[in-house]
Amino acid sequence: AALERYVEVKNAPVQKIRKIFNGIETTKFQYNEEKRKAKRKNLGLENKFIWLSVGRLTEAKNFSFLISSFSEYLNHTDDCVLLIAGEGELRLDLSAQVVALNLKSKIKLLGIQTDVIDLMSASDAYVMSSLWEGLPLVLLEAASIGLPIVATDVGGNPEIVTHNETGFIVPSSDQASLIAAMLKMYQLSEPERKKLGMNGSENVNAHFDLESIVDQWESTYNEFIRN
Fold first, then answer.
1. Is the Cβ–Cβ distance between 100 and 68 less than 8 Å?
2. Regions of the chain with pLDDT less than 70
């Protein structure tokens, strides 16, 4: 998407452009059953369906919208919680919103976490409500671990999340669509969700592994040097 926009805005010659994605160490972001059980027990959420969202508490991430959407989502199911990991200038506003909605037991602002990999293993699905993005590393990380994802159709999100194959893509700031996608994810059987997550993990390993990305950079540099 970024490539197409650049070509359109700059009228750049597409044949001279190489698209190289961000990458992650996929071997580092792997699901761990023992850490899942331990983290869920530590959080006191052994029997809950856990939604996870990670990011800075800023306007771009649209967490206020996510919180209000989750409040409506809870009208349809009561055994879910939303964990939000991160810090930012909107922390106090978001905390006040959670209190005003009487959702302190359902939405937990965890602050900065040093064990995000464990949190991802402990969770059942990942949600991203961003207004704008580049190619978010956190989505690559969540997908690598095998989390099925609901994400907004902004930036590079659709490069990572293939609709109906690795998760669901929804329009940004469309509450009805976000709630519907989250409910659809929740209502899937565990094998169906795991299939989405496995598809996402395979996609990240195939296209976003850091070693492969470095090889692409080296190949590109060598090509330019030769020319």
1. no
2. 1-10, 12, 14-16, 20, 216-217, 227
